[in-house]
Amino acid sequence: MKISLSWLRRYVDIDVPVEELCDKMVMSGFEVEGIEDLSETMQNVVAARIVRLEKHPDADKLQICTMDIGAEETVQIVTGADNVFEGAIVPAALHDSHLPNGMHIKKGKLRGVPSNGMLCSGEELCLKDSDYPGAEVYGILILNEDIVPGTDMREVLRLNDTVIDFKITANRPDCNSVLGVAREIAVALKTEFRLPAPSYKTVEDDMKNHIDIEVTDYDLCPRYLGRVVKNLRIAPSPDWMKDCLKAAGMRPINNIVDITNFVMLETGQPMHAFDLRDIAGAKIIVRRAKDGEPMTTLDGKDHTLTSDMLVIADAENPSCPAGIMGGLNSEIKEDSQDLFLECAKFRRDSVRRTARALGMRTESSARFEKGVDIHTVEYAMERALQLIDELDAGDVLGGVIDRYESLPAPRVLTVKADSITDLLGVSVPHETMAEILNSLCIETTLEDGVLTCRVPSFRDDVEGRADLAEEVMRIYGYDHIVGTPMTGAVTRGKKLPERIKTDRIKALLCANGLQEITTYSFIGSKAIDLLKLPADDARRQAVVLKNPLGDEYSTMRTQLFTSMLTVMATNFNRKAKAVRLFEVSKLFIPKALPLTEQPIERPALSIGLYGDGESFFTLKGLIEQLFAAFDLTVKYVRSNEPFLHPGRQATVMCGDTAIAVFGELHPDTAEEVGLTTRAYVAQIELPALFEAESKLVLYKPLPRFPAVERDLALLCDAELPAADIEEAIRLGGGKLLESVKLFDVYQGAQIEAGKKSVAYSLWFRSNEGTLSDSDIEPALNKIFKKLEEKGCTLRA
Amino acid sequence: MKQQLEALRVEALAQLDALSSQKEIEDFRIRMLGKKGELTALLRGMGSVPAEERPVIGQMVNELRQLLEEKLETKASVLASEAKNARLAAETIDVTLPGEQRTVGGLHPLNNVLEDLIDIFRSMGFDVVDGPEAETDYYNFEALNVPADHPARDMQDTFYLADNLLLRTQTSAAQIRTMENRKPPIRIICPGRVFRADEVDATHSPVFHQVEGLVVDKGITMCDLKGVLEQFAREIYGPQTKVKFRPSFFPFTEPSVEVDVSCSECGGEGCRVCKGTGWIEILGAGMVHPRVLSGCGIDPEEYSGFAFGIGLDRLTTTRHKISDIRLLFENDVRFLDQF
Fold first, then answer.
1. DSSP state, A321?
2. How far apart are CA B103 and CA A592, in angstroms?
């Protein structure tokens, strides 16, 4: 909320520098979002009289002005304007002056004639006609001839003011008003707050002779107050009022519109003026709209209403949506004679919903949405009538129509002062508590350590002990809060098992040189197409945001591949030679679509590798390590993901459940994503790892006897999986076989087509003694037999 | 015989001095002391020596043999050590050449900072809990004292998944789930991902991260809140760090405060980082609203508590002086490798 100091000073004395004022307000709960010194924008510009005007010897369009700037010596300025004349008072920007449009004026020569500044147009001073009469005329701004030469233009234009932008928190709708902020300033500066006491004269005619008001829906309109003003004398507002409105960011229009805006800003209570002659049947009806009822608002837009919207109607049609914007047919016009003035409280959720449904948001609707005070309705009306009378804008009629069902009694809170101390942890003297609350207009008495507080209706946010504690503390000062170490029962600081296991997984991957990445949880609606999944693939069933920032961020991901591929491609395009990446994040799996309950959030891990030395098997090695770390026994079987290389991909099975898929990226997908190198990706479902029981490691005695090593070179069908050969060796080897390790695979010219050569190292060991050749003979024979069954022959 | 022996001795010692390799040493040993060596030959000629001189000559021969053996050994070890020194000298390398490094991976900077926070708060007895990112309206708003159509909902632009389901806008939702499931004393933090409909720019991201803190017990005061936050701020920003409370508003705490820490860059003098104020805003906090407590079945007359919400992304960017939050989600390895 932007407010000028001069407006605030109408209600409170401010004797401290503006920075100090702002500091104090920040520390009592009113953040300052900006301080604008209006005078800063214009420097060294004065009103000056043209004493003499001469033609420029070398330029037809230029004139040489001798200017009286209120000093002993005159100043010579050359101008190109032709609306100047001798004796005119004009704004002169002197040497080294600054204009609000950003210009910096210095002395110089124009066609050889010295010019010590510049005469200014209204436009150059950023003025409109409403700021100064004639400001929009083409040419130099001609000022009022009464102005004494030498007067600072800031004084002429009343720019010696500062505008402060206060951020008002949602719990303080009362401070969306100049009076509310002034009241808080008075408390912060420990000075007096002067609330204007409205009084005005009325003419001898009762408004009830001219109009009637009916409220049919008190649930949406708890109070509706109307008055009538006749014989309008529409004119520009006085400067002081225009200045206040401009500082607040509102454009002055005429006295009637300006008064309703001024009172809205001053009291926080929106008002609306209707042209009395446009109210059909001389009746205002506050009712719910009928479904499909049409209406045109002040901005010329047509709307179709629904039955949950509140409207202000006359005997025939709805005129405007309540509390949002006036209707086109009943607005105040230049020739309006009489006006009906509305001041009401509309329910905030109703205004909010209607404003959203109609796509409108106004100063008025914003205030109703935040909540206006039912008693301020009356005060604001009185204040508006006072101003109408004061500015002689019309004749106020006697009589009032004030419709409400009931006015709530002030809330009375009874709280032990010590209970406030208990919450704060510092003891504020009880008397000080009472003083602070009273200064905030919360009438408080203290008796036997008990505070009895009458909360004014505009402080609807103060409901109990905690609110009173906050009121006391923000004024007493939060710097009184002193940090203390917590006492109480000792607690442990546990981590969830899932977090502990995730940490282990991450540590293992980091140790293998992988870097963690973090990507958004939502992807584009078409992103999944990159994976070329069939239409019935479950991963295409995704949770979709109802109001995404754009299609790019619209769909909760059901897999991590697309995000990983995007990051890999980004790095590849930025010339990273090799990357090893991983991400741990959640997948969002809908239980049913459309969504009726929270989706399943399943933690998953993705891995992405590319670069020299990377292969299907470097990726598989990582995955093996991962499962080994959790003592999970898994099987690797061929898979058929369309986005992976058809011959270089596998699913990892844990029992009957697929818990991971990995492989080399299909060249088509690689090309599509812009990753034109061999790349390897994996996705691992983490619940399988979380559920694995972590076994305590039990020490196995170190071997006391040496192992016997045998190498086997085998020839077999190229198609025979290595896993089958190893299984055969293990079956045959029995207890003595300690380990098997593949050390060579060969296919090529040296052996017959369709065959491959594989070589294994076998280690045999016994705990009973050193093994001799004859000891391992039976085991080897069994191995040979098992291998023969698989079609393997020993190579010579 | 004596003269022959003496001549051999002089000759042998002279030759021995000139030896310059292990091979020459070996050759010399064979030539002198071998079975067919000169000294052995001399010994064989003992037959021509009168019997009474034989012991003397014999002794001289043995002495010479012993002397030569000793000298040979010394010579051999000198040569060996010279050879070793020569080899070591030849093996000299440029120690300023770069070392060979194994690539070590690393956590994302957000999680690096999070790990620090978890350590700090666990040491103060806070459990680390988790909560769903797709939340119900009840847990994200209603139970946190933000009823439907409340203006406070405007403070956060919410992504909706269905009428009643949304992406959580704050980890505060975890407060409610915790209080429903645990009895006081409660001390938890809930780190997690949150979502708000903010357009992407240098300081805003529709996806970001918070660490929610909650303490509920008998006799918890605002001074306890400040004590915990001071501890946290000093661990993160340095032991001299000061903490300041400013009044603020959150629907689920009362009183509510914004928490500033003294600028670690200038120590509170005022600089570019803190925009001349000497303070940096790091989090929002407050005493748990009595309505939130009672909504979770905790009697606000008996128990009190505080809550705070740390913006992890902002903490990370300010701590590492990262100028643009988008860098955190772009995952350029040249950026990630720096942490």
1. E
2. 44
With tokens 């901005």, the residue in question is A299
Cβ within 8 Å, pair B160-A580: no
User: In chain B, which residue's Cα lies nearest the Cα of A543?
Assistant: B161
| Residue B226 near residue B331 (C-beta atoms within 8 A) | no
Write phi, then psi, for B35 (nearest 5 degrees). Answer: -60, -30
Q: What is the pLDDT of residues B32-42, one digit of tens each?
A: 888 888 888 87
Mark B301-316 as b/e (b = at least 16 C-beta within 10 Å). eebbbbbbbbbbbbbb
Residue A467: half-sphere exposure toward Cβ, Cα within 13 Å = 16
pLDDT digits (tens, 9 = 90+) for A537-567: 999 999 999 999 999 999 999 999 999 999 9
Q: Is residue A3 pLDDT above 90, yes or no?
A: yes
CA A95 to chain B, closest CA, distance in angstroms equals: 32
Note which residues in 330-369 of chain A have CB less than 8 A from chain B.
Answer: 348-349, 352-353, 369
Residue A97 in 3-state DSSP? strand
Give the 3-state secondary structure percentages of chain B, helix then strand then coil, rounded to 5: 45, 20, 35
How many of the other CB atoms lie within 10 Å of CB of A341?
25
Q: Which amino acid is at A494?
A: K
Q: How far is B77 from chain A (nearest CA, A)?
A: 38
Rounded average pLDDT over A591-601 = 93
Cα distance between residue A475 and residue A359, in whole Å:
40
Q: List pLDDT tens digits, range A660-674.
A: 999 999 999 999 999
HEC-encoded secondary structure of A566-625: HHHHHHHHCCCCCEEEEEEEEEEECCCCCCCCCCEEEEEEEEEEECCCCCHHHHHHHHHH
Residue B272: helix, strand or coil by DSSP?
A: coil
Cα distances (angstroms) measured from residue A708 to each of A105, A704, A725, A762, B199? 97, 13, 20, 8, 67
- Asked if A599 lies within 8 A of B161 by C-beta distance, the reply is yes
Least CA distance to A19: which residue of chain B?
A: B277
A-B CB pairs within 8 A amount to 248
Backbone angles phi, psi at A214, to 5 degrees: -130, 130
Beta partners for residue B240, in sequence order:
none
Q: Give one DSSP letter per residue of B73-133, joined into a string.
A: HHHHHHHHHHHHHHHHHHT---TTSPPP-----B--HHHHHHHHHHHHHHHTT-EE----S
CB contacts, 8 Å: B242 with chain A: none
Which residues lie closer than 8 Å to B119 by C-beta, 6 or more apart? none
C-beta separation of A120 from A99 below 8 A = yes
Extended strands (E) in A5-141: 31-37, 43-56, 59-68, 75-79, 89-98, 104-105, 108-110, 113-115, 117-119
Q: How far apart are CA A632 and CA A505, in angstroms?
A: 14
Tell me, what's the pLDDT at B154?
64
Helix (H, G, I), strand (E, B) or coil at A464: coil
Are A473 and B247 a contacting pair at CB < 8 A? yes
**pLDDT interval class at A738 (50, 70, 90):** very high
Is the Cβ–Cβ distance between A110 and A150 less than 8 Å?
Answer: no
Task: Answer yes or no: are the C-beta atoms of B241 and B277 closer than 8 Å.
Answer: no
| Contact indicator for A232, A339 with CB cutoff of 8 Å | yes
Cβ distance A666 to A645 under 8 Å? yes
Which helix (H) or strand (E) is B235 found in, with range? helix B222-237
Long-range contacts of A319-322 (CB under 8 A, 24+ apart): A319/A274, A319/A278, A319/A279, A319/A295, A320/A272, A320/A295, A321/A295, A321/A297, A321/A354, A321/A355, A321/A358, A321/A360, A322/A220, A322/A221, A322/A286, A322/A346, A322/A350, A322/A351, A322/A354
A490: which 2 tokens? 């000792």
This prediction's pTM = 0.84
